[in-house]
Design a protein that fits this description.
The chain is α/β, with parallel strands linked by helices. It is built from eleven helices and ten strands. It has two domains: 111 residues, Aspartate Aminotransferase, domain 1 (Alpha-Beta Complex), CATH 3.90.1150.10; 221 residues, 3-Layer(aba) Sandwich (Aspartate Aminotransferase, domain 2), CATH 3.40.640.10. The strands form two sheets. It has a seven-stranded mixed beta sheet with strand order 1-7-6-5-4-2-3, with helices on both faces.
Length: 362
């Protein structure tokens, strides 16, 4: 079992971290304390602002990014729209077929002659041309759990002079990631990072950030937010903080301990734990193993029968794009796998010792 499991009060039969992460004990305590203080007439805005910066710093460590390259927000679609607003008129944006709409829709609706083109995830690198201004893709696909060949896409983009935007929402928290591989990344932290909904992050390399217009600038985008509350807001922050939007304070109060927990954890151990459970489940159903292991397992379920079977046995899973979907995270163990297999009419998996010490190549 993952060493992080003790931080969670629940998790048994919960196979839906890809939909919504569970709050840790520390997150629950922090939010309750904040609510209690506010209810008694003592809201602590200073502490909430400090939580924002703790969350930003912890997220930066988690994704191997300089903290000055990290902007905070509340939804990834809003942060993607910020980038879409700076795509040159008539430029081409390439996306993966079937990717999550929050990553694709802002470019499709941007107007100004921006051309949106799609390609299968496995063919995305080959589809990049010198005429492609930006390639945008999720590191892990929401609908299928597929893990992108990020290094191959980044290398192809570099050769073509194409900018890169990677959505880490379905990856950060179980998969080792390096945000500096890309010009920009976005991540909503309410899934695998187990934060309250309303906490998202944008990373931008300084070179790419220079060409992005802070069209959503507000009081929190200022170099000193508390002196940027009126008029034009004064000087914007010199780093990625100029792309900040006003934070949902209570959400960040709960996010800070969750992000610090994941930032301090051994991400390689988490990766092995999650993907080993997924591999055990795949073996039980006789599903093929992907070339790049994933903590998400999906299989065809057009009628919803498999999802209904899981639900009938008290197992929380999800269905997306005509497929049943389960996810394995730090609060899950081998018993969760076997209980899910039993619910689907399959005998429990074999002994997990076959996976001891297994390290996958990303």
């Amino acid at each position: 079992m993952s060493s992080l499991a003790s931080h969670f009060a629940g998790g048994r039969d919960y196979l839906a971290a890809c939909t919504l992460g569970l709050p840790s004990r520390e997150t629950v305590r922090a939010v309750r304390a904040d609510l209690d203080a506010a209810a008694s007439g003592r809201p602590d805005v200073v502490a909430a602002s400090q939580a924002v910066e703790k969350a930003r710093a912890a997220y930066a460590r988690l994704v191997s990014s300089p903290v000055g390259d990290v902007a905070i927000g509340s939804q990834t679609s809003v942060q993607v729209a910020l980038i879409a607003a700076s795509v040159p008129d008539g430029a081409e944006v390439l996306c993966a077929e079937g990717d999550f709409s929050s990553l694709v829709a802002p470019f499709a609706r941007a107007g100004r002659g921006i051309r949106l083109r799609t390609a299968p995830l496995d063919d995305l690198a080959a589809a990049i041309t010198p005429g492609t201004w930006l390639v945008a893709f999720s590191l892990v696909q929401s609908a299928t759990g597929e893990v992108a060949n990020a290094a191959g896409i980044a290398a192809a983009a570099a050769r073509a002079g194409t900018r890169t935007l990677c959505d880490l929402t379905q990856a950060a928290g179980w998969l080792p990631v390096d945000a500096t591989m890309f010009d920009a990344t976005v991540c909503h932290a309410y899934k695998w990072l187990c934060c309250p909904r309303g906490v998202s992050f944008l990373t931008l390399t300084p070179d790419f950030a220079d060409g992005i217009r802070p069209v959503q600038a507000g009081w929190y985008s200022g170099d000193d937010p508390w002196s940027s509350c009126y008029g034009t807001g004064g000087d914007l922050a010199p780093d990625a903080r100029r792309f900040d939007v006003s934070p949902a304070w209570q959400a960040f109060v709960g996010a800070a301990p969750a992000l610090e927990m994941f930032a301090q954890a051994d991400i390689t151990s988490t990766y092995v734990h999650a993907t080993s459970l997924a591999a055990r489940f795949r073996d039980g159903l006789g599903l093929p193993h992907p070339s790049r292991p994933s903590a998400i397992v999906t299989w065809p379920d057009a009628t919803g029968e498999a999802l209904a079977q899981l639900t009938a046995h008290g197992i929380t899973a999800s269905g997306r794009a005509g497929r049943a979907r389960v996810a394995f995270h730090v609060f899950n163990d081998e018993l969760d796998v076997d209980r899910a297999l039993h619910a689907l009419g399959v005998r429990g998996g074999d002994d997990l010792s076959a996976f001891d010490g297994l390290v996958y190549a990303i």
